[in-house]
Amino acid sequence: SAVISQKPSRDICQRGTSLTIQCQVDSQVTMMFWYRQQPGQSLTLIATANQGSEATYESGFVIDKFPISRPNLTFSTLTVSNMSPEDSSIYLCSVQGRSGANVLTFGAGSRLTVL
Amino acid sequence: AQSVTQLGSHVSVSEGALVLLRCNYSSSVPPYLFWYVQYPNQGLQLLLKYTSAATLVKGINGFEAEFKKSETSFHLTKPSAHMSDAAEYFCAVSRGDGNQFYFGTGTSLTVIP
Question: Cβ separation of A103 and B34 shorter than 8 Å?
């Protein structure tokens, strides 16, 4: 399966600031997905990032709060803007597996704490 | 619409005992079902998947799951727990086209020596 590198692995941020999370894949992929994993809750899809077009956001997530870039087929960034303590979460990058579209491969995640 | 429900947010078993983690799904189309495992400070790793072939699916690390359509269940089992099995386990469902995955809230497995 694809190897995904995410950074930072964790960070502590102040309220009102923004943080950009990077996701690097070791192979070219069509779609990259950004998930949020809140404590005690399901993984929630934030958006799907396609190269060459704007990201597609799920209900409850907006581009102003979570701008996404996808400059090429191996890289994407997710920015969490104007952070509040409610944004404290693990943010996960994922891609469809090489063995088929019906499997997701995940990065190790970025654990974000907002004070 | 699709969703999964994992019964029991925390499960504790003794080392060597049977592991049973429960997952029930809801799907308006034939589902693709998955179990993922997350070790501390790591991403999710695929344990096994059901994609409409054999109903009993074997995965890595001795885990297996059985798809039971009549019960809308996809419970994860392992005959004998090992200390290294301690982790968070997530059940997930998708339509199979790769565009939407729905995850359960996770079950934290503790293995008692």
Answer: yes
Alpha helices in B1-113 (DSSP H): none
Residue A7 has pLDDT above 70, yes or no: yes
Q: For chain B, what's the residue count?
A: 113
CB A7 within 8 A of CB A21: yes
Please tell me the distance from the alpha carbon of residue A59 to that of residue A38, in angstroms, as a whole number: 17
- Give the angle subtended at the CA of A37 by the CAs of B69 and B39, to the nearest 5°: 80
Side-chain-side CA neighbours of residue B92 (13 Å): 29
CA-CA distance, A26 to B112, in Å (whole number)?
38
Contact residues on chain B for A43, CB-CB shorter than 8 A: 44, 90, 92, 101, 103
Q: Which of A35, A41, A42 to mutate to test the interface with B (most CBs of B within 10 A)?
A: A42
DSSP symbols for B101-113: EEE---EEEEEE-
Reported as a single tens digit per residue, the pLDDT across B86-104 is 999 999 998 766 667 889 9
